[in-house]
Amino acid sequence: LDYVTDSSNLSDSYARNRIRHTVLPPLREVHPGLDSVYPRMAARLAADEDYLGQAAAAAVQNCRRMDGSWDAKGLAALHPALRYRALSMILAGRGWSASDVQATLLLEHLRSEHFVLELIAGQYVELRNGVLRLYEKMPREPGWKLRVGPGEFALSGGRTAVLTRINCKYSEQIEKTDRKLLKNALDYDKIYGDLVLRQRREGDKIRLCGRGVGKTLKKLFQEAGVPADERQRIPVLADGVGVVWVAGFGCDERVAADASTKTALTVQIAEGNYNEK
């Protein structure tokens, strides 16, 4: 069949025509054999792509775990030419895709202890302890609550909560011991009822000592840039009235120790992701 030339063939409004009119002529001047070389190059590239695609598919199968997750360290050990393809295949298997920026972030964090990326609303990729998982809704850790007092208490993730009762003048003991304890020192006599160490709950508020303003923990974490998936792991100490202390942020001014404090209670979270005094 003879080809037909119409008005669209001459317009540079179309990308294919701009390539035909402005890119190919200079290339032919540099390499007169372009028209015979290009088809061979395209065929070889197509063969390479086919081979790399098969290798990436095999790698995805090898890295797939029985529970439907993937061995992130195994993916990280792949040749760079396969890593991106393998990740794209994993996402495509769920009908998902990632931008170049998102894919780069995921590839850089394949060996991270914990990393979460939201691709779009409701599409999460989590890397934790060498395992890659896909979620349509990030799972929360099961709710936890401990009734506490002076002593040591085991928390999830290998963490330990240490509550220490100091029976002496606040100004004479704590200031001389460790100034870092100041924001976490509570006046033991101002605590009402039982102390409970737990997760954040909807509506929790705190009026941090020295700030003069109260905020919900949700807003406090948002302003501090705490990742959404980490917020439920932050230990919260509460008494019969409300929140008295939050790990990494300090205590509520209602129970804050001061110069008149006779008995203080200090809180420390050791090991795991939180090592806050």
Summarize the structure.
With 277 residues, the protein is of the alpha+beta class. It has helices spanning 15-30, 34-63, 72-76, 80-92, 100-108, 170-177, 217-224, and strands at 70-71, 114-118, 124-128, 131-135, 145-148, 151-154, 160-166, 185-187, 195-198, 205-206, 215-216, 236-238, 243-246, 250-251, 264-270. The protein starts with 14 loop residues before the first helix and ends in a 7-residue tail after the last strand.
Describe this protein's structure.
Helices cover 32% and strands 21% of the residues. By secondary structure, it is of the alpha+beta class. It folds into two domains: 34-135, Chorismate Mutase Domain, subunit A, CATH 1.20.59.20; 145-270, Phenylalanyl-tRNA Synthetase, Chain B, domain 3 (3-Layer(bba) Sandwich). It is elongated, with a radius of gyration of 30 Å. The model is unreliable at 273-277 (pLDDT under 50).
